[in-house]
Amino acid sequence: MLWSRAGGARKPAWVLRRLGRVLGGAGGSMAKSSYEYVRQFEADDTCLHNCWIVVRLDGRSFHRFVEQHNFTKPNDDRALQLMNKCAQTVMLELKDITIAYGQSDEYSFVFNKKTHWFKRRASKFMSHVVSQFAASYVFYWKDYFSDQPLLYPPGFDGRVILYPSNQNLMDYLKWRQADCHINNLYNTVFWALVHQGGLTKAQAQERLRGTLSSDKNEILFSEFNINYNNEPLMYRKGTILVWQKVNEIATKQINSEKEVKQTPSKVTSLHCDIIGQQFWKEHPEILDDS
Ligand SMILES: Nc1nc2c(ncn2[C@@H]2O[C@H](COP(=O)(O)OP(=O)(O)OP(=O)(O)O)[C@@H](O)[C@H]2O)c(=O)[nH]1
Ligand SMILES: [Mg+2]
């Protein structure tokens, strides 16, 4: 059967000939419908070339979602692992993501600056990342929250940001990790004051007003015997997902005559510092756009 893509969707040739006649086309050949002009209203959202494309998503109204689903405070391991699982799924399903970074209810995905995926259309990047992530969140929920039913469908917002230089991209990721540190230190002291110190939330907030990081570390240590530096790395640093080469060679069959040898990669999660230079020296492949 003859098939054609005219009109957007794939249709058999006889349907197109009939459609052409209905729309007034001559001799059964496909004429453009008088509605075709509406395509011109679609905005061109091609991402500027040679820029890193970052998609960041964030849970919608998660302050309410975490309460209703009884997340532990300030960090819920099940929730963080579920976020990481969803982000790994995004990296495996979509093309050209070189690194991802997540903390709390947010995740950032960095697409290689040379990517040509979906002709670099921002709306395609954002919608694919967010929908894949949200669907995975619901799909894998029960694997992480076996005793807690999902009460309503969670939502995520998304945005696309372009970074023209490697320095800008590194600074973006450092900014997100600095944000993770600031929020996690605050939340750790806040909930220690409430849970262990017996303060109300309002009193804890008042106690922390105007304090510096050093003050918060001191409260944790002197009043609750908590050394902040011994708190789990995933809470303090967030999660970095990168590709790691697997130490074996796999053979991929292209067709009945041709096969190619490949060094496969897998997605690995790290919880290390990315603000200093060491991480970037150890992982030059992340910024390598070749
Ligand atoms: N208890 C708990 N709360 C969490 C955890 N992870 C994220 N959150 C909460 O999720 C919220 C994330 O903050 P925001 O994204 O700024 O707030 P939001 O309510 O999602 O609002 P919008 O993103 O603007 O829709 C905060 O209230 C966090 O405390 C967790 O592991 N445990
Ligand atoms: Mg949110």
UniProtKB/TrEMBL annotation:
Keywords of this entry = GTP-binding, Magnesium, Metal-binding, Nucleotide-binding, Nucleotidyltransferase, Transferase, tRNA processing
For the ligand (Mg(2+) 1), the binding residues are 58-59, 105
Biological process (GO) annotations?
tRNA modification
Organism superkingdom: Eukaryota
Q: Which cofactor does it need?
A: Mg(2+)
Enzyme nomenclature, EC number: 2.7.7.79
* MF (Gene Ontology): GTP binding; magnesium ion binding; tRNA guanylyltransferase activity
Originating species: Geotrypetes seraphini
Pfam families noted in UniProt: Thg1, Thg1C
Q: What does this protein do?
A: Adds a GMP to the 5'-end of tRNA(His) after transcription and RNase P cleavage. This step is essential for proper recognition of the tRNA and for the fidelity of protein synthesis. Also functions as a guanyl-nucleotide exchange factor/GEF for the MFN1 and MFN2 mitofusins thereby regulating mitochondrial fusion. By regulating both mitochondrial dynamics and bioenergetic function, it contributes to cell survival following oxidative stress.
Annotated positions binding Mg(2+) 2? 58, 105
The Thg1 C-terminal domain sits at 167-275
Q: What class of enzyme is it?
A: transferase
Q: Does the keyword Nucleotide-binding apply?
A: yes
Q: What is this protein called?
A: tRNA(His) guanylyltransferase
